[in-house]
Amino acid sequence: MASKSSTSAQRPSPSAFTPMALGPVRLKNRFIKAATFEGMMPRGEATDELIDFHTEVARGGAAMTTVAYCAISPGGRVHRDTMVLDSRRAAALRRLTDAVHAHDALVCAQIGHAGLVANTRSNRTSTLSPSTRLSAPAMGLVRAVTTAQLQAVIDDFGVAARHAVDAGFDAVELHMGHGYLLSSFFSPNINKRTDQFGGDTVRRAELARRVAERVRQEVGNAVAVTAKFNMDDGVRGGFWLTDSLPTARLLESDGHLDALQLTGGSSLLNPMYYFRGEVPMAEFIAAQPRLVGLGLRIIGRRMFRTYPFEEAFFLPLARQFRDALTMPLILLGGVNTMQTVDTALAEGFEFVGMARALLRDPDLINKFQAGTAAEGLCVHCTKCMATIYDGTHCVLRREPC
């Protein structure tokens, strides 16, 4: 890992700060603040704290920040404090997009349906699954979605994307990862359907392809359309390269997406696969209601596996996609140093996504450009994960976002 006093800190890579097109929009550099649930949407409302969170990232030098997570419908929320991107919230979010734009940055809305990850008791409404199965987040059995319900999902994605345009967003990111609804349809472990939406790799990709098509029809060339896309679910019998590579080729051939942001893991079955680092179990337990905390004491270690943190931990998988695709790709996962950024760009990735590094230091991109830092301050403790219940922040910062 590079030292902050190293030569690379004095001579930042010029390519990292060269503007690059993302579909119809142009980013001033190659740094994107990846979606991190902010925990600042009580009852799904756009708050001053949410606006300040993204304004700070924009002021810190990132070319684009991502608002997460915006549900396409009430049933698609993760829980009751998740925003539904309807017309009323779109009007409220205009203050956020204007604030980000004032700092010469762009802003993206991540939209999706939580599927089996949705907490139905908190939402007080049912959720959807490719096939009938038990879900711990849903706290019970979730019935297989009907074809009529799937058409409503496709329609809801289109409507939410249109609201994002009305709110002034420059890009829309479709959530196709982490065990959310579209991701669960990809998975042979979860999707046991025998109709046009299940079976082989092509049929399991059908819902996501229709969603991408509908969103592009709704927004045209007004905004960029990207997808957060699972390369590997991190579970036995799940979505892996033998499925994810051909699925990515299908999405590329359809031509509706401007980029893929490459990720992995499952909020439903293996969440630490896309975080990496020690599991903050004590902090999780302390943040939960008493009964949930008791459950975590009993089964938490089985739910949350430990994966040692490694710089650029998704790069080996992502290289397979760079070799197979020509469309723009966003490298995500443990990007903390300018050396990693330079490596990614040299290998043909157009952008890098950063999350925890910017929670720790939202001004990091400015420091990279000025040559005053070559690596971030994040120590990869993962304790920020447990702060999503009262406002996501780095616990080592004196003044959380």
From TrEMBL:
Gene3D superfamilies the UniProt entry points to: Aldolase class I (3.20.20.70)
Coiled-coil positions: none
Protein name listed in UniProt: NADH:flavin oxidoreductase
Organismal lineage: Bacteria, Bacillati, Actinomycetota, Actinomycetes, Mycobacteriales
Pfam families the UniProt entry points to: Oxidored_FMN
Keywords: Flavoprotein, Oxidoreductase
SUPFAM superfamilies: FMN-linked oxidoreductases (SSF51395)
Domain NADH:flavin oxidoreductase/NADH oxidase N-terminal, chain residue ranges per copy: 17-243
Database matches in InterPro entries: Aldolase_TIM (IPR013785), NADH_flavin_oxidoreductase (IPR051799), OxRdtase_FMN_N (IPR001155)
GO molecular function: FMN binding; oxidoreductase activity
CDD domains for the chain: OYE_like_FMN_family (cd02803)
